[in-house]
Design goal:
mainly alpha, 3-stranded antiparallel β-sheet, 8 helices, about 45% helix, elongated
């Protein structure tokens, strides 16, 4: 384990790092570390048990997972290799504690850090959902502020950290997804139903013709009834 006796030193590599590609457990562990740092700083860095519970909690997570500590440790080891996480052994605690360095490695603002955290923990979100769900980590006064942060993350060079997904049929707004786990597949368009068989088409056309004829017959009957009434009234004038 890393021995850290003082404040964590921020590391800024001299050369640009290769694009970060995280597995699902790695993204969940990283997002949980950031969330707990911002929402419960008194308990941060986290013990392995606390971090595992944070990954598996039922609220503010999508999908809900059930990681064991081995899965979490494997994710931590990879994150530490990427300089995205660290282990802390302090004199005040017997248990090793873990923290993150995401904002240092990617050089993020507090707003950008909060947005990425929500996307890592809850999957693709609309601007409104992002604004509402980052409240405990960062306050966006308006939707425009949240959208501006998303645009900054989506246009970063050399690698974007967020992408805007195509709006799904029936949805009012587009959603955004993080790219820390690689490119995100755009939602597939709703597939059209199978083409009707020729015999079905013939029957449908016959039914339409019959329905049309029935309407015409009903209209003719109505006209005949009206003519009979008019004729009867005309005869009464000569009686």
């Amino acid at each position: 384990m890393d021995e850290v006796t003082g404040p964590v030193v921020k590391e800024f590599p001299g050369e640009p790092q290769a694009r970060i590609i995280l597995s699902e457990p790695e993204a969940r562990v990283l997002g949980s570390l950031v969330e707990k740092q911002l929402t419960t700083p008194d308990n941060y860095p986290l013990t392995l048990n606390s971090l595992t519970l944070a990954c598996n909690q039922l609220s503010n997570r999508e999908p809900v997972v059930s990681y064991d500590e081995v899965t979490v440790v494997r994710a931590l080891n990879r994150l530490r290799e990427l300089k995205l996480a660290f282990a802390y052994n302090g004199a005040e605690s017997r248990a090793t504690r873990y923290g993150h360095k995401l904002e240092d490695v990617c050089i993020l603002t507090p707003a950008e850090l909060a947005v990425l955290t929500v996307l890592m923990l809850r999957g693709p979100q609309t601007i409104g959902e992002i604004r509402g769900r980052t409240g405990r980590m960062h306050t966006f006064a308006t939707l425009e502020e949240a959208e501006s942060t998303l645009q900054a993350l989506a246009t970063r060079t050399p690698d974007a950290l967020v992408t805007k997904l195509a709006r799904q049929p029936g949805a009012k707004e587009s959603r955004y997804a993080h790219l820390l786990s690689g490119d995100v597949a755009q939602p597939a368009p709703v597939a059209a139903g199978p083409a009707p068989e020729p015999a079905t088409l013939i029957v449908q056309q016959e039914n339409e013709r019959i329905a049309k004829l029935e309407q015409e017959v009903a209209a003719l009957r109505q006209e005949v009834a009206e003519m009979r009434t008019q004729l009867a009234n005309f005869r009464k004038q000569f009686e």
